[in-house]
Amino acid sequence: MNTHILRSVVRGVGAYLPERVLTNADLAKTVDTTDEWIQQRTGIRQRHIAAPGETTSQLATKAAQAALANAGLTGADIDLIIVATSTPDYTFPAVATQVQANLGVQHGVAFDLQAVCSGFVFATTTADKFLTSGSHKRVLVIGAETFSRILDWEDRTTCVLFGDGAGAVVLEAQESDGTLTSPGIITSQLRSDGRHRAKLYVDGGPSTTQTVGHLRMEGKEVFRHAVGMVTDVVKACFADAGVTAADIDWFVPHQANRRIIDASAEKLGLALEKVVKTVELHGNTSAASIPLALSVACKDGRIKKGDLVMIEAMGGGFTWGASLIRW
Ligand code: UT7
Hints:
Elements: E1 5-16, E2 20-23, H1 24-28, H2 35-42, E3 46-49, H3 56-71, E4 80-84, H4 95-102, E5 109-113, H5 119-133, E6 138-146, H6 156-159, E7 164-176, E8 184-192, E9 200-202, E10 215-217, H7 219-241, E11 250-253, H8 258-268, H9 279-282, H10 289-299, E12 308-315, E13 319-326
Parallel strand pairs: 4-5, 4-6, 11-12
Antiparallel strand pairs: 1-7, 2-3, 6-7, 8-13, 9-10, 12-13
Helix pairs in contact: 3-4, 7-8
């Protein structure tokens, strides 16, 4: 009996954070806020901010190099690069093609994907389709952002929430028996609903204002939808894979707000010690937050080979999604 299929298996993880750290106390010097308010409402203590001239493609390249090193691979081994970002260096070309050039890769294909904070889940799921179709062998999936460049630094309701950074994973197509215990992406669920545009958007762009614009958010409204949306897609993954919360070793959610993370974990019946949280140190880095968190939890030995990992995110659009991965 030959039941072998292809699975997208994680070969390596890497991350990069800009050097400069901006603390809540630093922010309180320029906007009407306090460390206490930010920590209490969001869990954030600090965030990293890209240096002048430091671009998303540079952060993405450094994260990609770290992931390749972790996998014991080089750019020559990669035939697809997907960068999830909402803060590209330029309107075009894609950040991914710049990363491709920076890595010295001249074969294969590279493109960007835009799903705001859900970008990494969307990019991982897209990569999985390429790999399991047999068309590509190894993918660099990168989430990279310089949200500091699209923040209104006078708007205390948004500027305290976000940070810059990049994270990457290398996924490889491997023969699998397709069982729950075999490594790789087991199932993914992606959703979007464009009716929610006005709750979280950037008020500029090439075909409207011809400017880059600033992030605008009705925080309370986003919060109100977030928990229900992410728990829905996580439960859909549970059902599709035939698992329950008890089977999950690590829950690695998008890092927007500690309260959203805790409420989602509680609603799903996931023990808090299984939840990887980096929001405290990184803030919300949009598409970069999940691979940054994965990188932290792999490095410190929490996520190990054989663990069952659930990633999920929700963001502008709205977009939302989840993926269940056997490490
Ligand atoms: O990445 C994906 C999408 N993003 C998210 O998931 C973010 C979702 N939303 C949130 O995380 C939360 O809604 C926020 C953290 C943005 C806000 O928390 P909240 O508990 O919903 O607070 P709020 O917006 O209801 O504001 C409460 C009060 C307001 O004052 P009044 O009207 O009660 O007098 C705000 O003006 O806090 C005030 N406030 C601040 N105070 C000090 C708002 N921002 C600040 C601030 N410092 N930075």
